[in-house]
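Repro:
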Amino acid sequence: MRTLCLVASFLALAATAPSVIACDGKAEVEAAFIKQQKQPWRTEVVTQAQDGTEQRQRFDFQPPDKMYRKATAGGESIETIGISKWAWSNLGSGAGWEELQPMHARVVTLQVQEAFAPPRVTADFACLGDVTFEGKAYRAYQTAPEKVDTGEVLARTIYVDPETGLPAFNVVGAPDASGDPIVKGVFTYPTDINIEKPY
C-alpha cells in the first residue's frame, strides 16, 4: 500500500513480544488510510541507514491531486510540487523553482495518483489492542516479524488514533519497539495545508 512504506517511533510497547487480540487488522488499517485520504494530511518520514545517517522526507497532500515533498539528507534539500499533471522542483543552492518537463513530471504525477488511489493493504496485521506510544493511547496493528538480510528481526506497526480513526504512526523496527526504528513515519493533519504552483 502506498503510505505503508512510510513509518513511526521508538517508544516501547514492552520488552517482550506484544500480545494479540482478535480483530480484522488488515481491514481496520485499510479503513484508517481510506479515512485519511478524505482530508489534507502531512507525513514526515525518518529513514535510518545502516551507517547511522538519517534521511528526512516531508509530504503534504491536499485532495484531490496536490502534493508537496521536501527531502533532506546530508544538509541538502530537494523540494517538489505536483498538481494534477504538472510538477515543479527546487534543487536548492539558490537555484529556485523550475517546471519539470512532461517526462519527469509524469513520475511526480504517478506518485500523487498513488497517494489518492483507494488504499489496498496487502499485508496481514495482528491487532495489539490499546497501547501507549509516545505518551498517548493508540490502537496498534503489527505485521508478522521477519528476519532481514542484516539479521535483524523487523515488523511494521501502525498506530491509529482511537478518537479520530486516523493513522498516527507507521513504524518499521523491532517488534517489541526496542532500539531505534529503521523507518519512522508520523502523520499529522494540519488545517492550513495549501499547495499552489510556486510561481
